[in-house]
What we know:
The chain is an alpha+beta fold.
Amino acid sequence: xxxxxxxxxxxxxxxxxxxxxxxxxxxxxxxxxxxxxxxxxxxxxxxxxxxxxxxxxxxxxxxxxxxxxxxxxxxxxxxxxxxxxxxxxxxxxxxxxxxxxxxxxxxxxxxxxxxxxxxxxxxxxxxxxxxxxxxxxxxxxxxxxxxxxxxxxxxxxxxxxxxxxxxxxxxxxxxxxxxxxxxxxxxxxxxxxxxxxxxxxxxxxxxxxxxx
Length: 212
């Protein structure tokens, strides 16, 4: 059980490869997690399926950065089983105000339809959760996130765990020791999350085809 957790302690934990989770959204307590096998998405290994490429190419979406952070976190927590409780929500909000937490949002016809949020520290991005209220919206968000991290000088996209969904997009599992080694290297870099411009749909597909 995590006692006295604050934003500074949370950042220190991330830098050591540890993160907190609640057992349920209603739970008051948080617990430290350090998986033996860690999920990551290699930035040069993101997989774009034909259907996803087709949807990105159509360009019927708008990508925004940090314009609806709390809405993204709230949407990620609005599911039958969630680990985002009120204390974690408050911590994420504090980290956002301090410039460490970010959201990448997918908007369609003026409506927030998908997104992903996480914590940026050095050249590491700790992806916390994503949501989708339209077909493939979370996949679109992840595709643009990967490109933003590559252009912004990041070297590590941490997904905490590997799910079948993430595996289909190029996610892999690595041992804890290897993860910590990659994390140490990433923390020595200086990633820029907000600086890079959002690429045009055709441009992002071309870049991913060249590196995948």
